[in-house]
Design a protein that fits this description.
mainly alpha, 0% strand
Length: 201
């Protein structure tokens, strides 16, 4: 019973933190058009970069990562159980994608995903980010870079942790992010995916 209550408490905390939209808040404060109403209509760093510039995009990226990182670090202060940590990370991601403050319509979750991974294991987080950077530098496609990195992350985490609970949570997170990128995957298959720095039509 106590474990169930802990899961509810930390999952709820993580979800509420994850629900804050860095992209929407940043664009509003900087006088930039709402990212939900322009470009890909996605409140994320890539869309903000295309229409709001590098500064706004960097703030959005860092903010979205922090709101994935903080709930995991808070949970780790009270628990070492991998199940609770994994559920907290998953809840932060779900908060970003289905934010209670914005009608449950949020972003695709990539930066928040990386924040969660950095909280669970900084080594795995840095490797995942390095994979993203390498693929992005070569192919210049943000979505593909994220998908490659996120596909490999549960496998990398298993190598470091051997934890079924953590890896299952992260694998589920990866599936959710892939689902959120279904339009991007279709565009990639058609060869029409927008490259980094280019404007979406």
């Amino acid at each position: 019973m106590e474990n169930f209550l802990n899961i509810i408490i930390f999952a709820g905390m993580a979800y509420l933190i994850g629900s804050f939209s860095t992209a929407i808040i940043t664009c509003k404060l900087m006088g930039i058009e709402d990212p939900r109403k322009t470009g890909s209509n996605n409140p994320g760093a890539t869309n903000v970069l295309r229409h709001g510039g590098k500064k706004a995009a960097i703030i959005t990226l860092i903010g979205d990562m922090i709101k994935g990182l903080i709930p995991v670090l808070i949970t780790l202060q009270f628990h070492t159980e991998h199940l609770i940590i994994g559920i907290a990370g998953l809840s932060a991601l779900l908060g970003h994608i289905f934010p209670v403050y914005y009608g449950f319509k949020g972003g695709k979750g990539v930066a928040t995903y990386y924040g969660v991974i950095l909280g669970i294991s900084w080594q795995v987080g840095l490797i995942a980010l390095a994979i993203w950077l390498i693929v992005a530098a070569i192919l210049k496609i943000s979505s593909l870079s994220a998908l490659v990195s996120i596909f490999l992350t549960p496998l990398i985490l298993w190598y470091f942790s051997q934890s079924i609970e953590l890896c299952s949570s992260v694998a589920l997170m990866s599936l959710i992010v892939f689902w959120r990128h279904k339009r991007n995957i279709k565009s990639l298959l058609q060869g029409s995916e927008v490259k980094i720095g280019k404007s979406a039509k």
